[in-house]
Structure formats: structure tokens, C-alpha cells
């Protein structure tokens, strides 16, 4: 006897209805179905994943009386106190600085107060201690493994072989906000991710923007202009569409056809929403070869930056965030109220190349590979925030960082090794910024960074005090999930103290 999950099947039914909503009758039916939704505003959430495990010890640096303990453990990886950019975090009796490659974000933290730092966050099964860690009691599985910790961060289910990510589960919960739009709640400019995989929500991929290839949506109808050559020739476009729409007995083939047809329809809808089209239905170009956008993005992002070798290098993250800006700018035309984006920057696994290509002979760590990565992060996220301010939508757009893990405080000679707790950033007009969030008591929002300190599980690896669940629940709540719905997104949230979020978002 077949059994059905009514909740899931309703979602599938509504999604099929949305595809058919081009007719007036279906459009009215869809509007009626979603009329009760509470989504009266627009909100976008942007996950910035730093692949490889960013060295958070050098992103936020303890100063004052705590600097000696930091520098002693870091050795040749220590950022000189004089070079750190001071930030007023409001932690009584303590002082901190940002990496010198992060002037833009430091300014937003200090002046705009729309950047918050969440120090020492990490994958946890439940609140833990050094004694529990040493006794191997409820430690996350495969601790310090890149692939496993990336998965745990993105799924929020370190205790379970999760098939969905917390971004995807959030999208499942709020997808009704977008009514009959053909565009998914989830959009990635960095390929497919586990973070966005939902039970019913399917992520839509766009390409990173670049000055030489400015269309972010690939044109799937490559044979559309077939009739420009000869009307007597077969129509390959029709053959292609027939292959997608043909009725199939095999479930796998049927799903392939459905996904292909949906991708074709969505790409054309997004293209027509973002770009002025030429006679063949492709994004039109001006005399300079640039795509003609319906919602031009200005000012242009820092697509390149000068690296430590003095060469112009592509800012991969800026290109992705430029594409995100395109989709946000077209939000009304796309008919969306909620969007969850995924972008990424890789290269943070700096075991032996943390100051590779450094142009600073005296203090190599002040430049090099890791400094260049932080420069890309700083320039891209600063530009994206300032763009949202210029559009009057900064209160509606929040970006945040995640990474595999932090790294060791100790140096291995030319870099650092896999750690655990890391420092995260949340940025946007709705962020209660200029402050650190976390810790277990006032004044403990930032961990003690010293070898053999109270947070050291070995080699200066930080024992996290803020869970992925608490961190992520703050964003889910901001996006519209009620407190009672948060355990749907984070099933283990009830194990932690901050079940209603951490308070850094208004």
C-alpha cells in the first residue's frame, strides 16, 4: 500500500501549479493559495563560504594585555599589533583589531556599525568542555576533516547523515513567500552546494559576473536562430524540447526531462527579466560588447585587485556577489519576496603557504596568500554592502561567512593546521553591529587566545562556544521562520541555550 507525506506532496503540487501559472486562471489560483503568507517585505540572505578553513586567528586579533599570549603562540604567523586595525567591539577591558587587509569591513564595524563578529563558532553536537573533548564524549564525527566539517556546517546535522542543508530546509519552510515566481528561493553563484539542498526547494545556479562575459544566465536555447539559415532545415530546438517533454516510463528519465524543461523555462524567464533581448531572444549587447541590463549595477565591483606580487588578480568573490546583486535588483520583476544565495571563496587551506609570494621582507605574514584572500573578502563584501546602501535596501540584505573550521594558533613554519572554532561575520543594514556576539557571560564574547588557555584543545585550536545551530537560527528567524519553526531547520537547536537566535539581527 502506498503512503504519502501530505505536506511534501502539497509542496510538489504547488510547484507544478507554479510552472503552469502562465494562464490567467492558474495565476489567480496561485495568488489565492499564497494570500495568507506573512511575507510583506523583501529579504535576501547571502552565505559566503570560505573553503579550506580560514585562519581566524589572524582575521581578528586580541590586543592590549592579551596580545602577548596571542603572539607567543603564533610565532612567525603573528600580525604585529601596530599593523592591526583597531575595532571598538565594546567588550569591557579588552581591545581587538582586524587584519590590515580588511580596512573596508573594519570601517563598517566601527563607523556604520552594521558588521557583527561571532567569535569561536563551530560544529557542536551539544555544549561541551575541555574535559568532555579529552574524554571523546559527543565530539563531532571526523573532527578536523575538511569534507566532513564543510558538510556539518552546511547541514547543521553533525550527528546524522543529512541529505539536506539548513539553507535548503529554510527554503522549504519559506518558499511560499515567492508565490508563483518561476525562480527558486535558493540561488547559487558558486555551483551546487549541500547548504542549499532542500526536500522540495531546488537551487538555481547562475554564473559569476565578469567584465568579459557579463551575462550571468546561460542561454539554453542555442538553436533558436535555426530558421535564419534555412526554413527547409529541421528544427533542432523543437527536437530538443520534444525530448524533454516526452512521456517516459522510467522515473529517472522522467526526472531528467522535468529538470531540463524547468531549467529551460527558468533561464528564459530570468534572461528576459534581467536583460534587454535581441531578435533571437539572447541578451542584447551594445557597441562595446557589453550586455544591456535592465537593472545596471553601479558602481562596478572590484573585479580585480592588486595581489602581494603586485599583479592584477581576479576577485572571484566580487564576481559572484555582482551576480547576486543582479538577481536582487530584479527582485520585483522576478516576483520574489525571499532569496537565499550561496557564494564562496576557496584557497584557505594554508598549511605551508600562508605568506607565499609575500612582498614584505621584514614581516612576511603582512602580505602573501592569506592576506590576499582576506583582501578579496574585504573588497567584495564591502562593495556589496555599500551597493545595497546605495539602493536603499541594506536593511533587506544580510550576508554572513562560514568556513570549514578555524586553524591552530601554532605555526608549522610556513602556515597553520586544521583547527575547530572559527570567527564568523554578519553584515547588513539589519545587523546590530560594532560588537561581538557569543561567549557564556558578559566580557567573554571573544575567547582567550593563548596556548594551554581555557579554550585550547591542543596547539591553540579553539573549543567552540557558539554552535552552528545558534548562529544559523538567527538568520532563519530573520528570514521569517517563527521560533516554533526553527527546530525544523535546526533539529538539534534545543540542546543549546540560544534557541531563539543570538540577537545580532534586528
Explain this structure.
With 506 residues, this protein is α/β, with parallel strands linked by helices. The protein folds into two domains: 43-214 and 296-495, Alkaline Phosphatase, subunit A (3-Layer(aba) Sandwich), CATH 3.40.720; 236-292, no CATH class. 31% of the residues lie in helices and 12% in strands. It is built from 14 helices and 14 strands. Strands 1, 5, 6, 7, 10, 11, 12, 13 and 14 form a nine-stranded mixed beta sheet that branches. A hairpin with a 5-residue loop joins strand 8 and strand 9. Helix 10 (316-329) runs parallel beside helix 12. The longest helix is centred in the middle third of the chain and has 24 residues, at 251-274. It is globular, with a radius of gyration of 24 Å. The N and C termini lie far apart (49 Å). Residues 1-37 have low confidence and may be disordered.
List the helices and strands and how they pair.
Elements: H1 6-19, H2 24-33, E1 43-50, E2 60-62, H3 67-74, E3 85-87, E4 96-98, H4 103-112, E5 115-122, H5 130-134, H6 146-155, H7 166-174, E6 186-188, E7 204-205, H8 236-245, H9 251-274, E8 304-306, E9 312-314, H10 316-329, H11 331-334, E10 338-345, H12 369-390, E11 397-403, E12 422-428, E13 435-436, E14 466-467, H13 468-479, H14 486-489
Parallel strand pairs: 1-10, 1-11, 5-13, 5-14, 6-7, 6-10
Antiparallel strand pairs: 2-4, 3-4, 5-12, 8-9, 11-12
Amino acid at each position: 500500500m502506498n503512503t504519502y507525506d501530505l505536506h511534501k506532496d502539497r509542496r510538489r503540487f504547488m510547484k507544478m501549479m507554479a510552472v503552469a501559472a502562465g494562464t490567467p486562471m492558474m495565476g489567480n489560483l496561485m495568488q489565492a493559495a499564497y494570500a495568507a503568507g506573512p511575507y510583506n517585505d523583501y529579504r535576501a540572505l547571502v552565505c559566503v563560504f570560505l573553503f579550506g578553513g580560514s585562519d581566524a586567528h589572524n582575521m581578528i586579533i586580541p590586543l592590549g594585555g592579551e596580545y602577548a599570549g596571542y603572539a607567543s603562540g603564533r610565532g612567525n604567523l603573528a600580525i604585529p599589533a601596530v599593523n592591526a586595525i583597531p575595532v571598538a567591539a565594546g567588550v569591557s577591558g579588552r581591545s581587538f583589531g582586524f587584519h590590515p587587509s580588511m580596512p573596508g569591513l573594519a570601517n563598517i564595524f566601527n563607523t556604520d556599525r552594521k558588521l557583527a563578529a561571532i567569535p569561536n563558532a563551530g560544529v557542536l553536537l551539544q555544549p561541551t568542555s575541555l574535559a568532555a573533548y579529552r574524554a571523546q564524549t559527543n565530539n563531532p564525527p571526523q573532527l578536523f576533516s575538511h569534507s566532513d566539517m564543510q558538510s556539518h556546517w552546511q547541514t547543521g546535522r553533525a550527528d546524522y547523515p543529512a541529505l539536506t542543508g539548513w539553507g535548503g530546509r529554510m527554503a522549504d519552510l519559506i518558499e511560499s513567500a515567492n508565490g508563483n515566481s518561476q525562480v527558486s528561493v535558493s540561488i547559487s553563484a558558486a555551483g551546487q552546494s549541500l547548504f542549499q539542498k532542500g526536500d522540495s526547494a531546488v537551487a538555481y545556479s547562475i554564473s559569476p559576473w565578469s567584465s568579459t562575459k557579463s551575462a550571468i544566465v546561460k542561454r539554453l536555447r542555442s538553436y533558436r536562430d535555426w530558421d535564419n539559415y534555412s526554413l527547409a532545415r529541421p528544427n533542432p530546438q523543437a527536437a530538443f524540447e520534444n525530448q524533454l517533454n516526452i512521456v517516459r516510463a522510467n522515473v529517472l528519465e522522467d526526472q531528467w526531462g522535468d529538470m531540463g524543461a524547468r531549467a529551460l523555462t527558468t533561464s528564459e524567464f530570468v534572461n528576459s527579466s534581467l536583460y534587454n533581448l535581441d531578435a533571437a531572444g539572447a541578451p542584447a549587447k551594445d557597441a562595446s560588447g557589453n550586455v544591456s541590463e535592465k537593472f545596471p549595477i553601479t558602481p562596478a565591483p572590484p573585479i580585480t585587485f592588486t595581489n602581494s606580487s603586485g599583479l592584477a588578480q581576479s576577485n572571484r568573490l566580487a564576481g559572484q556577489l555582482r551576480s547576486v546583486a543582479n538577481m536582487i535588483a530584479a527582485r520585483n520583476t522576478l516576483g520574489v519576496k525571499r532569496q537565499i544565495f550561496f557564494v564562496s571563496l576557496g584557497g584557505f587551506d594554508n598549511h605551508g603557504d600562508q605568506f607565499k609570494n609575500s612582498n614584505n621582507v621584514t614581516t612576511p605574514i603582512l602580505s602573501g596568500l592569506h592576506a590576499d584572500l582576506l583582501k578579496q573578502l574585504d573588497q567584495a563584501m564591502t562593495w556589496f554592502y555599500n551597493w545595497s546602501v546605495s539602493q536603499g535596501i541594506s536593511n533587506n540584505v544580510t550576508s554572513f561567512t562560514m568556513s570549514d573550521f578555524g586553524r591552530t594558533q601554532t605555526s608549522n613554519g610556513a602556515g597553520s593546521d586544521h583547527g575547530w572554532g572559527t570567527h564568523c561575520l554578519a553584515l547588513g543594514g539589519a545587523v546590530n553591529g560594532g560588537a561581538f556576539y557569543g561567549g557564556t557571560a558578559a566580557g567573554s564574547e571573544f575567547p582567550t587566545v593563548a596556548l594551554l588557555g581555557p579554550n585550547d584543545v591542543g596547539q591553540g585550536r579553539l573549543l567552540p562556544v557558539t554552535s552552528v545551530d545558534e548562529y544559523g537560527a538567527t538568520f532563519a528567524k530573520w528570514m521569517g521562520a517563527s521560533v516554533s519553526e526553527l527546530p525544523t531547520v535546526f533539529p538539534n537547536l534545543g540542546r543549546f541555550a540560544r534557541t531563539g537566535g543570538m540577537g545580532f539581527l534586528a
